[in-house]
Amino acid sequence: MIGRIVTLVIVLAVMAVLFLSMSTAQKMTVVVHNNTSKKPVDIVLNHFQDSDCGMPLEDINYASQAISEKGNTWFFHDHGGLAHWMQDKKFKDKLVIWVWAKDTQKWIDGRKAWYSTTEDTPMSYGFGAYEHKKDGMISFDEMYLRVLREQTMANPYYKGQQ
Question: Alpha-carbon distance 57 to 147, whole Å?
Fold first, then answer.
């Protein structure tokens, strides 16, 4: 039992070192400060790091950004990761949220977007953002609640019910 715990700790430490060295070696952008206009930042793929999981943003299709009142901007490669990251932030209701709309190929207000629920997304949450509503799509608030309830495609039980 102790051997398993030691192995797990070592694996987690190695992963942490890899993520930290990757962000330093590639000069990854983790947070942009002083974005006082609260407009979406132009993302350079493979140079921006997800604020929830630490992975690089490799595809714009499921990207989102959260901007605080002070102009700090965080980046996400999966809308579910944004929702997961927001849950313990005291300022979550004041964030300006931008999501990449798959239908119009532009940044839109994430709180006004519509979300599909069964897409193959980077972290398997399953939410694609769209400017125009179609049957079966849900609101931002519903998407956020589903992440909190683990009603996402990352949950094998839930995925099997879809």
Answer: 20
